[in-house]
Specification:
mainly alpha, 8 helices
């Protein structure tokens, strides 16, 4: 599809790029339905941009960042960061802010160097902004990665 990532389409776009996240998200939607929430609540589960990005980080990205390198892992990382690159250019400021917060919480401290190697220019800029917001220096290996390209 490659439409801009917005609240109304984040789930569909994410599922197209990362089908492995389908079951964790489906469980949340089934749970919302089982609790007899009204249809608006189920829609909120589907369009909650922060929640869907949180799912991507916790259910897909962080587990594969911790795995040994292989072809499948590389493919998931490539697709995950390609999707995040689209998120980083969302026309919705809130979605870009959610990404920056999650990058700060999840990638910089523990998986920054590896993540930075897979990130595109917009996600890299988001990671650098998140460092500044957290009062951190940009790691030297990030500068080295930029100068080697």
């Amino acid at each position: 599809m490659n439409d801009p990532i917005e609240s109304h389409n984040i789930l569909g776009e994410m599922l197209e790029c990362l089908p492995e996240i389908r079951e964790p998200i489906a469980k949340k939607i089934r749970s919302a339905i089982a609790l007899e929430w009204d249809p608006a609540d189920v829609t909120n589960v589907r369009t909650d941009a922060y929640g869907r990005l949180w799912d991507l980080f916790n259910e897909v990205l962080l587990p594969v960042l911790g795995e040994e390198a292989d072809q499948d892992r590389e493919d998931v990382l490539r697709r995950s960061f390609a999707f995040l690159e689209r998120v980083a250019t969302s026309p919705e400021p809130a979605i870009r802010e959610f990404l920056q917060g999650l990058v700060g919480d999840y990638l910089i401290g523990r998986d920054g160097p590896r993540s930075y190697a897979y990130a595109g220019p917009e996600v890299r800029a988001t990671m650098i902004r998140a460092c500044a917001n957290w009062g951190m220096d940009v790691p030297a290996d990030w500068r080295e990665a930029d100068s080697s390209e």
